[in-house]
Amino acid sequence: MSQRLCNIFVAVVFAWSIPLTAKAELIEGSTAELFQIYDRSEWDTRKQIETMLAMTENGLKSANIYLATVRNEPALFCQPEKLRLAGRQLMNILRDGVKSNQSLLQKPWGLALLISLQSTFPCSQPRPN
Fold first, then answer.
1. Looking at the 3D structure of the chain, how many domains does it have?
2. Mind giving me the DSSP string for 91-129?
3. Single pTM value for the model
4. What is the distance, to the nearest Å, from the Cα of residue 108 to the centroid of all Cα atoms in its chain?
């Protein structure tokens, strides 16, 4: 991933994660840690995690808008414009991404979500590296 994409990703995830009340390890943890906490938790914690995933996806979509309108660069992923995903759907996309690429388990969950969204919603034009 290019330095530009890394900088955008870090800024977006940080900005969308600040208002959350979820545990600190969720914000900074690996995908494996996120799955462990989610799978062992009660309904309210699962909802917090799903909200965190939805907010991160929203931030990544905002990054796509920025790239297209300000930088005139290709999108990070090409989710259909009218498609709205719920937190549980994003968790399923993340799990599918990990099934396809086991190395994502050790990556920060936000990065794994981005890579999973890229796999689920690829763009027709390749992104520059």
1. 1
2. HHHHHHHHHH-GGGGGSBHHHHHHHHHHHHS--SSPPP-
3. 0.77
4. 10
